[in-house]
Structures are given as C-alpha cells and as structure tokens.
C-alpha cells in the first residue's frame, strides 16, 4: 500500500536520476541511502557549520584579502567559489540579497537550443559555435554538481507549416550531434495527437506536429545561493546587504573599498589586492566609480515573465517558439505547479535597480501567447498570479570616443582590466558563469602575483551544497522518516537536496505546518533560512528562499503574517522593525511583482464579459464565470485566508455561555452555532409529538416546516374528536358538528382527495401558497 501511494514521486525522481547517472557515480552512496531507507534510520546531514553574518562582517574588517568580488549574482558567487577553491583569501559583498538581480528573474532555462545553432550557422560565426559547444558542456556540469536544483526539461516546438517540419527536425539533429557526449537526450518528433495530449489548449488548426529537444531547467535563485554557501564552506567570506560606496587606490596593486552595512548603516573599509566587478546590468556604475572617464559598455535587454495557472501549459514539457533570432521569443515552462510565460530579449527603456513590467509589455506578451492557443481560450490579466521583469546584463565592445556608435551586443561574455587593475566581467548567462569565473580569476593571478594553492580551476567536480548524498528516492525517504505529505517531501528534496534531513531534524511537528494551504512551503523553512541561509529580511525569505512571490503575489500576502511572526521571534524585532519589514515587502510586491497594478486579488477581479476583436487577435468565446467565493475584508497587509461564510443564525437573548466562564473555556463561533442548532431541533421534536409517540423531523426550509406543523395539528385534532356511540337513524335530525378549529390562514379550496394525515390544501398558484405559509410563520 505504501509503494502504491508514492509510485509517482519515486518514478519522477528515478527518471531524473537515470538521465544524469552516467555523469554522477555514487554506487556506494546509493547503497548507503537504500540501506538506511529500509532500516528506518534517519541519515544525518553532512552540512558543514557555517559562520554567521556577524562573523563574516567581523572578518571583513580584520582580514586583508587576495580577491574582493562586488556583486552576489551567478557570476559573482561563481567567481567567489572558484577563487576560494584555489586557496585564495576571498571576500564577496552584495548590496541587496544574493540573486536579487537578473539571476533570480531569468527564464529558468539553462541555455542552448536549435535556434542558437541555426543563427550561428547562418552568420558563419565560428566563435559562436565554439561558445555554444562550451555552453552545452557547462549545462552537463550543472546537472552533475547540483542535481537537485537542475533537471532536464523537454522543450516542444510546434510546427504549423509543412516546409518548416524537415528544417526544424534537421536543426534538432544537428544540435544533438553538435552537443556530443554532453547531450541530455536525443530529439524526436511528436505527432499532432501526442502534442495536443501534452498541451490541450494549444491551437490545433493547421498543427502538423512538434519537434522535441532537451534543455535544462533550474531554480536560479537557490542555485546562486548554493554557490554562495559552498564558497563559504570553502573558506570565503560572503556578506549580503553590504554596498560599496568608494574605491581607493593604494600602492602597488592593493585597493581599499569603503562599504556600508545597509541594515545598520555602519561604514567600514576592506583591504584587498584585487577587485573584481561582477554587478551585472549595473556594471557601469562600479566602472565609473573606479574611473569617471570610462565609457559605458552595458547594453541591457529585458525579459518579461508572468505566472499563470498550471492548466495553461503542460506539467512535463516546455513550449518554445523560434523567430529566427538568437533566442526564442516566447517560452512557456512548468514551474512550482504553475506555468511561466515569458518573452525574451525585448528592448530595455530604462536601467533601474527595481525593474517593473509595464501594461504594454504584458499585453504584448499575452497577445503573442494567444496566437498559440485555441480561439475559444480566454487569456487576460485576471489570470496572472505574478508578473516581473529582469534586466539581462548584455554588453558590447568598449569604444574610445564618446559619440562613437556602439557595436552589436555580444552574445559572449567580456572580461576587462582597467588602468587601475580592476577586473570587470560582464555579459554571459547561466551556462557560462563557471567559464567567466575561471577566466576572471586567471586574469587576476596574471595582473597581481597571487599565491594560490591550486593554480587551475577545479569547480567542475565540486558538488554544491545539498548535492552530497542526493538520490532519487529522497522524497520517499523523507516521508517515511518525518511523516510529511508527498508534495512537501518532493518540494524539500528539490529545493534543499540532502539538507532536507538537516532542516526536518531541527524542526518540531508544530513547525512542519504549511504556510499556505495551496503551497508545499512549511514554517521550518523560514527558520532554516534565517539560521543557515543568511536571510535578513522578509523579502529575502518570500522571494529568494521560498520563491512564492514569483509564483503568486496574492498568496504571499496571506503567508506574510506567519512569516513575519517567525522572523520577529528569531531576530527580536521591535514593533518599528516589523512595520519597516511590512513596508519593504509591500514595496517589493507592488513595484517588482506587479501587485495592485497588473495582478489583482481574485475576489476583486471582474471577469470580462466580452472581448473586442481589436484587443486580441481572433474571436474569443468567454467561458462561464466560476462561482465567486466570499472573502474576509482586511486592512493593510494583514490578510486572512478566504473562507465561504455560512449564513449566521440569530442568537438568543440569553447567552449560552455564563459570565463566569473563563476565556480558555469559551466555545468558538462554529461550536456555538452547532450547539444552538441541536438545541433548536430538540425543542421542535418535543413540541411536535404525535399521538402515537412518533417523532416528526422537521426539514430546514421554513415553508415545509409550516406545512408539516399544520398537518400534525390537523391529525391531532381529528384523533381527539369523540366518536358517536351509534349510527343515527335516517329520520333523525343531524348531529351538530363540533366547533371548527380556529385557523390563521385564509380560506383555501380543498382537494377532493384526503390522505391519512389530513386534508391537503391546494392552490393553482404556488407563489401565493408559499406567501400564505410565510404569513403564517410571521403571525
């Protein structure tokens, strides 16, 4: 019985394990976990005890580092891990939280695709072909060093033209051949029926089939966090919420950086021999801090993403549409039991630290998505659960003159050395973060005589935090050992890997409760994020530890009170600090997640009755509106879950509870209603007992109650009428009938037929009859 319940979880996890088993050899580890699973022993976590944030801050002011890295994104954390693994004294500072920029707002796809290969072949760019091959190899490395955060994802390309079918199939086969041993799985063709089985809402008119190739999907924010924690385990000093305000050049290659703690406002200086700039799209700000005359190199582009309900996509396949450019224009992916819809590489109008999507960008995205859906499928703003925009850190070659026209943005990454020996690495993507980090550390060793323990990078075989001891049966093991539900076990295994044992071992049965009834997040994750993952604010937990803000912004409000209560108790926040945290999370949700402007609570959303043809492409049929649920009103951000309230009943004047009852012994509202309901039914039973001691159960409707009461009264009166002793003679005078029963009803036309209970009054107009019975009740 146990194996039947958890077959789907084990099957999914084993499938992921079998794909990457060729690159991860852990036969002895698998046998250990298998024996522990059958024996019922709880395995201990192999996580190394990390220094706290205060200890890292103390080390920044007391240590002279070899490498100082500015920026806590994918490139910065990867560079810190590479330098620390070589034995260099490494420090990393981030102005906000780890992965607070584009790293956590990417498309959740690692890289690659036949469209990139097609564009490289058409332009005859050999450098791009080599970069694409390296990206495919790095994708296999990511699946190996963090199998719990990276997973293979089949991507489906729908084909609506017979001429494009052989071209797309040939491009996918060249893609497989070009990847070589780093290919995840061979591409194949799906028929029209199989394609519609995976995407039921996909437009079927003119569909010829689809081509499926395999890419990788990952949790970008937790992947970056795993890099930072692994770098700390290797001896690096990593601190978030510390910004650089000044760069001072000293003798030789030494630099001094002025910093400020954002949480406390304390300022201090950090000494380092080399400085590496890895600030992503804001790289020109640090470059101008080093040299005010330097020309900008950033050419950012935008990625707009929205979160939709899961029924718009497929739970197993992603959908991608190519437009002949380097990257696909539209992507639809399953993620966190929802569907992500996004447009890649759109123009970025303004460079800001808090990017937010506009209504025009969202309308363009939804309009592009409607072209691939059936005509009778409605897709509008009321379907969105969250909306965000990420600024991709693209760059172009630096130019000497101020008015020189910038070149085309590079698809590759860029490593630049300034006159003051500051290294800037910009551009790139997730599949090239490790190459960028290794190149930047190599250039730092060339510019300054550093003495590393290992001269070459060895991060390709270094497992990240949580990958030690991970295996396919980990969700089933967590369910057996800690008695948690299946979706919670799957989520913990995917997000924390083997650290899920450490998380649950520290928790109590009370802290394993869900934070929201529709999501698998539990309270113990908040405690673990504060203790072991350097979470300092509520935004850090809800956005980049639990990821619920990117999935459903409204559900984030419902989870906010409990998360704030847990963090306030752990960090001893005052009332002023709690109000400040509420303002920060409100600012984040409204400005960056589109809450209020693009995303509305479901109870306040008014569904469109009709959609004009000018708004969308093609006619749409508005589906039947679902049943609206009543929600409790709330003020501010202290939201309460939505309940369907029952109609209240009138309480008696004399309260059921005595005044001497203590507050702990008082009954709840629902219990009082049930108690009054039972008391009312008992009173009705006692009042309406028949002569034969038969109990008449009254229905709930008042009209039916009145009818049955009238029948019972008539039956009792008829039985109580005395029977004459003998039959009178025909010539005798008629015996006077008893006085008729007093009635409160108007005269009705009686039916010619009578039953055993009494005479049933009839009326042609049922509405009039019901109103008469209501008048009886009122009297």
UniProtKB/TrEMBL annotation:
<keyword id="KW-0560">Oxidoreductase</keyword>
<keyword id="KW-0274">FAD</keyword>
<feature type="region of interest" description="Disordered">
    <location>
        <begin position="654"/>
        <end position="678"/>
    </location>
</feature>
<dbReference type="InterPro" id="IPR000447">
    <property type="entry name" value="G3P_DH_FAD-dep"/>
</dbReference>
<feature type="domain" description="Alpha-glycerophosphate oxidase C-terminal">
    <location>
        <begin position="457"/>
        <end position="577"/>
    </location>
</feature>
<dbReference type="GO" id="GO:0006072">
    <property type="term" value="P:glycerol-3-phosphate metabolic process"/>
</dbReference>
<protein>
    <recommendedName>
        <fullName>Glycerol-3-phosphate dehydrogenase</fullName>
        <ecNumber>1.1.5.3</ecNumber>
    </recommendedName>
</protein>
<dbReference type="GO" id="GO:0005739">
    <property type="term" value="C:mitochondrion"/>
</dbReference>
<dbReference type="Pfam" id="PF16901">
    <property type="entry name" value="DAO_C"/>
</dbReference>
<dbReference type="InterPro" id="IPR031656">
    <property type="entry name" value="DAO_C"/>
</dbReference>
<dbReference type="Pfam" id="PF01266">
    <property type="entry name" value="DAO"/>
</dbReference>
<dbReference type="InterPro" id="IPR006076">
    <property type="entry name" value="FAD-dep_OxRdtase"/>
</dbReference>
<feature type="region of interest" description="Disordered">
    <location>
        <begin position="601"/>
        <end position="630"/>
    </location>
</feature>
<comment type="similarity">
    <text>Belongs to the FAD-dependent glycerol-3-phosphate dehydrogenase family.</text>
</comment>
<keyword id="KW-0285">Flavoprotein</keyword>
<dbReference type="GO" id="GO:0004368">
    <property type="term" value="F:glycerol-3-phosphate dehydrogenase (quinone) activity"/>
</dbReference>
<dbReference type="InterPro" id="IPR036188">
    <property type="entry name" value="FAD/NAD-bd_sf"/>
</dbReference>
<feature type="domain" description="FAD dependent oxidoreductase">
    <location>
        <begin position="66"/>
        <end position="393"/>
    </location>
</feature>
<dbReference type="InterPro" id="IPR038299">
    <property type="entry name" value="DAO_C_sf"/>
</dbReference>
């Amino acid at each position: 019985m146990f194996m039947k319940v958890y077959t789907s979880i084990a099957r999914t996890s084993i499938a992921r394990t079998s794909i990457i088993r060729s690159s991860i050899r852990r036969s002895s580890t698998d046998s250990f976990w298998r024996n522990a699973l059958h024996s019922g022993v709880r395995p201990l976590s192999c996580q190394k005890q990390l220094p706290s944030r205060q200890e890292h801050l103390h080390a920044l002011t007391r240590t002279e580092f070899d490498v100082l890295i500015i920026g806590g994104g994918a490139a910065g954390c990867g560079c810190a891990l590479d330098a620390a693994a070589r034995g260099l004294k490494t420090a990393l500072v981030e102005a906000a939280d780890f992965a607070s920029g584009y790293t956590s707002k990417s498309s959740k796809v690692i890289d690659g695709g036949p469209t990139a290969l097609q564009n490289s072949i058409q332009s005859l760019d050999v450098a791009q072909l080599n970069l694409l091959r390296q990206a495919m190899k790095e994708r296999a490395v990511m699946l190996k060093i963090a199998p719990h955060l990276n997973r293979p994802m089949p991507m489906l390309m729908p084909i609506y033209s017979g001429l494009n079918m052989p071209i797309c199939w040939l491009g996918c086969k060249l893609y497989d051949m070009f990847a070589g041993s780093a290919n995840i799985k061979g591409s194949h063709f799906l028929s029209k029926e199989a394609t519609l089985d995976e995407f039921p809402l996909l437009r079927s008119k003119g569909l010829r089939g689809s081509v499926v190739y395999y890419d990788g999907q990952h949790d970008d924010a937790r992947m970056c966090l795993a890099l930072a924690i692994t770098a700390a385990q290797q001896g690096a000093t990593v601190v978030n919420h510390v910004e650089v305000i000044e760069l001072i050049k000293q003798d030789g290659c030494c630099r001094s950086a002025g910093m400020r703690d954002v949480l406390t406002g304390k300022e201090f200086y950090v000494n380092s021999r080399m400085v590496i700039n890895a600030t992503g799209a804001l790289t020109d700000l640090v470059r101008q801090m080093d040299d005010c005359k330097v020309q900008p190199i950033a050419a950012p582009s935008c990625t707009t993403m929205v979160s939709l309900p899961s029924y718009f996509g497929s739970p197993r396949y992603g959908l991608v549409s190519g437009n002949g450019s380097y990257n696909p224009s539209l992507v639809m992916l399953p993620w966190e039991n929802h569907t992500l819809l996004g447009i890649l590489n759109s123009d970025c109008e303004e460079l800001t630290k808090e990017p937010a999507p506009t209504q025009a960008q969202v309308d363009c995205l939804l309009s592009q998505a409607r072209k691939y859906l059936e005509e009778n499928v409605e897709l509008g703003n009321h379907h969105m659960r969250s909306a965000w925009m990420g600024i991709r850190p693209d760059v172009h070659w630096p130019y000497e003159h101020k008015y020189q026209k910038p070149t085309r943005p590079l698809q590759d990454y860029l490593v630049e050395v300034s006159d003051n020996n500051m290294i800037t690495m910009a551009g790139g993507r997730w599949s090239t973060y490790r190459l960028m980090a290794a190149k930047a550390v190599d250039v730092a060793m060339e510019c300054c005589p550093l003495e590393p323990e290992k001269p070459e990078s060895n991060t390709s075989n270094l497992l990240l935090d949580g990958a030690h001891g991970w295996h396919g049966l980990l969700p089933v093991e967590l369910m057996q050992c800690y008695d948690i539900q299946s979706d919670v076990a799957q989520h913990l295994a995917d997000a924390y890997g083997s650290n899920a044992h450490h998380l649950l071992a520290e928790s109590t049965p009370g802290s394993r409760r869900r934070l929201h009834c529709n999501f698998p997040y539990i309270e113990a994750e908040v405690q673990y994020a504060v203790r072991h993952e350097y979470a300092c604010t509520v935004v850090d937990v809800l956005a980049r530890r639990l990821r619920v803000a990117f999935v459903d912004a409204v559900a984030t409000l419902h989870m906010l009170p409990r998360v704030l209560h847990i963090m306030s108790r752990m960090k001893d926040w005052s009332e002023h600090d709690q109000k400040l945290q509420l303002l920060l999370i409100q600012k984040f949700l409204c400005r960056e997640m589109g809450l209020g402007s693009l995303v509305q609570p479901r109870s306040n959303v008014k569904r469109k009755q009709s959609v004009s043809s000018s708004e969308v492409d093609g006619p749409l049929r508005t589906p039947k509106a679902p049943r609206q649920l009543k929600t409790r009103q709330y003020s501010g951000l202290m939201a309460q879950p939505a309940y369907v309230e029952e109609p209240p009943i009138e309480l008696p004047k004399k309260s059921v509870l005595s005044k001497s009852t203590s507050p702990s012994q008082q009954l709840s509202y629902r219990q009082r209603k049930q108690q009054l309901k039972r008391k009312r039914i008992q009173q009705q039973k006692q009042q309406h007992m028949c002569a034969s001691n038969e109990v008449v159960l009254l229905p709930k409707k008042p009209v039916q109650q009145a009818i049955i009461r009238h029948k019972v009264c008539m039956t009792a009166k008829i039985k109580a009428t005395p029977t004459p002793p003998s039959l009178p003679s025909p010539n005798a005078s008629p015996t006077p009938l008893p006085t008729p029963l007093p009635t409160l009803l108007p005269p009705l036309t009686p039916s010619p037929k009578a039953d055993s209970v009494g005479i049933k009054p009839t009326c042609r107009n049922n509405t009039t009859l019901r109103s008469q019975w209501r008048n009886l009740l009122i009297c």
